[in-house]
C-alpha cells in the first residue's frame, strides 16, 4: 500500500507546541512519504504555502499526491488545520486529524471566535463569498468519506466552538481534552500518541510492542 501524509502547520509553524520533524519521523516509521506545509499566516494554507507559493499550486499538489497513493492522511494545527481540512475534502483524502483547528472563519463566527483579526481580514480576500468560509458548508456539499478527528481544549471557548461546528457529521469524531489553552500546554498532551492511535485505528500502522529484555 502506498501511503502519503500532509502536515499543515499552524501559525507558529508547529503542530501545537511540537516541531513538525517529530510528526514526520513517526509517519516515516510507518511507511509514509510526507509533505510539510508552512505559511498559514498568509491564507490559512488555502491557496498557497511557502513551499508552493503560486496561487492554486498547493491544491494541485495535494490532489496529485492523493491520486498517486492508496491512502492519504492530513494533519493540521490551528490556522493550518483550516486549509488542511479544506484540501482533504476536495482531494478525497482518507483521514484528517486536526489539533485546535479552525473550521469556520465566516463573519458570524467571528462574533464567537474573534482571534487573529488580521489573518481573518486576509481570508475575506481569499474566500470572497462569506457563506463559503464555513467548512461545514463544504462538508455538506461534497459529502467526503474521509474520517475526521478533531482534538481541542474543552476549556477554551473559541477552540470548542471551532470543533463543535462540525459535530453534526457522522464521520467527524471530537476528542475534547481537559485543557483551557489553545496549544494545550497546561496538560501533558502529546500529539504523537494521538496520531499513532488514529493510524492504528485506520489500519495503516502496526502497534508498537514491547520486546522483553533477555
UniProtKB/TrEMBL annotation:
This is Uncharacterized protein. The lineage of its organism: Bacteria, Pseudomonadati, Pseudomonadota, Alphaproteobacteria, Parvularculales. It comes from Aquisalinus luteolus.
